[in-house]
Amino acid sequence: MAYGTPATIDDVETYYTDIRGGRPPSQELLDELTQRYRAIGGRSPLLEITRSQAAGIQERVEGLSSYVGQKHAAPFISEAVARMRDDGIEEAVGLVLAPHYSAMSVGDYERRARSAAEEHGWNGTFTMIDSWHLEERFVALLASRVADALGRLSERARQEAVVVFTAHSLPTSILEHGDPYPEQLQQTADAVAARAGLERWQIGWQSAGRTTVPWIGPDLLDILVELAAKGVPGVAVCPCGFVADHLEVLYDVDIEAKALAFDLEIEMERTESPNDDPRFLEMLAGVVVRAFER
Ligand code: FEC
User: Fold this and answer.
1) Are the beta carbons of 142 and 185 closer than 8 angstroms?
2) Are 125 and 91 in contact (CB under 8 A)?
3) Which residue has the CA at smallest separation from atom 8 of ligand 1?
4) I need a labelling partner for 93 at 20 to 30 A (CA). Which of 69, 198, 240, 254 fits?
């Protein structure tokens, strides 16, 4: 399961309305989001990458059929579950293509899958995978990507560079119920830092929604301002809460954060996304197999 993306620029309004729980966005919000999609070339590669990740996991697990279901665009999770019923699938595991658990993200995917099962009368066994943020091969892949990103900084900037590990922000209301999301991001960051032998790293949040409620911080943009004020010459951003190239990486990090870093005269590089790297798919195939064995 993955977040989903509008198929074309004309689908942005329907997509945004779905994200907002059925409330259409104002013209101003719609224009602003449309402009972000235009800035990355008119569409996001998220669905293609999600399909390629699903196919890559399927081909690594004997006898496995994979079904792609998205949260906010077709093919929706509900359609995937209906197809599983039609195909006579008796046992399934639910894997979200995002490493960290929050009741508001992974928990929401699970609720959607379970209610679709009820709605479509699918009675198979369903095991949900909550998180896989500390999988050794995931940590190793990120550590090598961080080393690559640091290697792209000039030697001067690299000496005192800080690595910022980011995930999508969520409203602070999740913290009231002891949600593990921030702690899991910190755990991924610490594990990657240990593996890569980092001296300076921190976590940060990105892509907070355009709503009036408070969102978890510090935001990546504020961190850049703070680091520049301290005289830090270089930053490597590792958006480890995401596993594919899409709007939040290609715009929020590559365009918005990079423009700010440029203004602040601080060098900034981003780690390459896992996408369909065979090492990443091998790791996820292992996670899926273990879930079937539970
Ligand atoms: O490439 C693409 O077309 C889609 C990129 C995309 C990903 C993604 C992942 C996550 N989101 C999460 C939480 C929220 C919450 C809200 C929210 C809003 C948006 C909007 C866009 C968007 N998200 Fe997203 N998210 C992506 C795209 N997200 C576009 C709407 C405009 C905006 O606010 O920027 C706020 C909803 C509300 O209005 O109430 C909450 C989380 C993830 C990471 C886990 C996952 O992948 O599911 C958490 C990719």
Assistant:
1) no
2) yes
3) 3
4) 240
Residue type, 153: L
HEC-encoded secondary structure of 36-97: HHHHCCCCCCHHHHHHHHHHHHHHHCCCCCCCCCECCCCCEHHHHHHHHHHCCCCEEEECCC
Closest by Cα among 167, 90, 164 to 133: 167
What does the pLDDT look like over 70-96, one tens digit per residue? Answer: 999 999 999 999 999 999 999 999 999
User: Read out DSSP for 136-204?
Assistant: HHHHHHHHHHHHHHHHHS-HHHHHT-EEEEEEE--BGGGGGGT-SHHHHHHHHHHHHHHHHT-SSEEEE
To the question of pTM greater than 0.90 for the whole model, the response is yes
Pocket test residue of 100, 247, 250 for ligand 1, highest count of atoms within 8 A of CB: 247
Question: In sequence order, which residues have a C-beta less than 8 Å from that of residue 282 and are 6 or more positions away?
Answer: 60, 137
Strands 201-206, 234-238: pairing is unpaired
pLDDT digits (tens, 9 = 90+) for 62-71: 999 999 999 9
Q: How far is the CA of 88 from the centre of ligand 1 (A)?
A: 32
With a Cβ cut-off of 6 Å, ligand 1 is lined by 3, 5, 16, 19-20, 33, 44, 46, 98, 105, 168, 170, 209-211, 241-242, 246-248
Distance CA(294)–CA(269), nearest Å, equals 40
Cβ–Cβ under 8 Å, residues 294 and 92: no
Taking CA atoms only, the protein residue closest to ligand 1 atom 30 is 16
